[in-house]
């Protein structure tokens, strides 16, 4: 499976999610220095690539997301 090309915001959000067991959207916005809407859009795109799983305001990294972060560190 090829690795998706992520925007800087998407990559930063994914790295922030991966560093936490479960992350809150508003905490992610503060961590990456982006607005909540930009983070929400990034999470939506990351979920489409099966890199994160979002439930309400809470986001967690999938195994695929963990692999992406390790490969791009």
Relevant terms:
alpha+beta, 56% helix, 14% strand
Structural features, described:
The chain is α+β, with helices and mostly antiparallel strands. The chain is built from four helices and three strands; from the N terminus they run αβααββα. The protein has a three-stranded antiparallel beta sheet with strand order 1-3-2. A hairpin with a 2-residue loop joins β2 and β3. α1 crosses α2, α1 crosses α3 and α2 crosses α3. The longest helix is centred in the middle third of the chain and has 13 residues. The chain is globular and about 30 Å long.
What is this structure, in a nutshell?
The chain is an alpha+beta fold and about 70 residues long.
Structural class: alpha+beta
Helix content: 55-70%
DSSP E strands, number: 3
Which stretches of 5+ consecutive residues score pLDDT under 50? Answer: none
The number of helices is 4
In whole angstroms, the N-to-C terminal distance is 18 Å
- Report the radius of gyration as a whole number of Å: 11 Å
Shape: globular
Strand content: 5-15%
Mean pLDDT: 93
> Topology as H/E string?
HEHHEEH
Largest sheet: 3 strands, antiparallel
Strand line-up in the sheet with most strands: 1-3-2
What's the topology here?
Blueprint: H1 8-18, E1 23-24, H2 25-32, H3 36-48, E2 52-55, E3 58-61, H4 63-71
Antiparallel strand pairs: 1-3, 2-3
Helix pairs in contact: 1-2, 1-3, 2-3
């Amino acid at each position: 499976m090829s690795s998706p090309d992520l925007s800087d915001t998407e990559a930063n959000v994914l790295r922030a999610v991966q560093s936490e067991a479960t992350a809150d959207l508003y905490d992610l916005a503060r961590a990456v220095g982006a607005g909540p809407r930009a983070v929400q859009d990034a999470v939506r795109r990351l979920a489409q690539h099966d890199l994160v799983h979002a439930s309400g305001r809470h986001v967690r990294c999938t195994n695929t997301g963990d692999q992406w972060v390790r490969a791009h560190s």
